[in-house]
């Protein structure tokens, strides 16, 4: 591959990679139901029994969610019976699907490379100045002349993270405990690296824990941003949480 074809190929590659590193868009749906009483402690459980709470991937996802919950002052109770609410976690990846998208490819043209003639002064040994015509070669250069919209078939993978909280009460008269709030976060693109996206999606939920988004929101997340770093470092719960849990354990 030579000349203009190579230039176009490199330009397209740079454009696609540039888009991939600027950040991620996470769709967030949050629902909250007003239920009297303050609830700060929780017990985290797997929504899908097939995931298994001893699974290493589940443990990692659970740590990310615990960290997100801690950002709102929530903490995990030492035992399930002492928790104010049960928080259930579900995550995974939907079946892949294909779609057409359009990519803007920069177009460059080679200009220059011509020979031009200039008159230059020449001084002889006696100091006399005369002019001589010389040939000057202008090296070719590439200039941006526009963009071309090109179709591209891509395979999309939707990654999701679901967190829901319900009252920690037994069912009464056949009715399950009231759901307090739930969040559904998802990100879709060509990546099928679920592990990479778990902290990204968890960071997008922090502002919506216990809140009602009313409509689907699109949260822009930088993979190396402060919120994702906070989730990845698996920060500890607020200092008051262990003390309160210890106090409850004594009662």
Your description of this structure?
The protein has 251 residues and is α+β, with helices and mostly antiparallel strands. It contains five helices and ten strands; from the N terminus they run H-E-E-H-E-E-E-E-E-E-E-H-E-H-H. Strands 1, 2, 3, 4, 5, 8, 9 and 10 form an eight-stranded mixed beta sheet that branches. It is elongated, with a radius of gyration of 30 Å. The relative contact order is 0.24.
Helix content estimate: 25-40%
Number of helices: 5
Distance between the termini: 76 Å
Provide the gyration radius in Å: 30 Å
SSE pattern, N- to C-terminal: HEEHEEEEEEEHEHH
- Major β-sheet annotation: 8 strands, mixed
Low-confidence stretches: 1-21, 236-251
Rough shape?
elongated
Q: Which class do the helix and strand fractions yield? A: alpha+beta
Mean pLDDT: 83
Into which percentage range does the β-strand content fall? 35-45%
Number of strands: 10
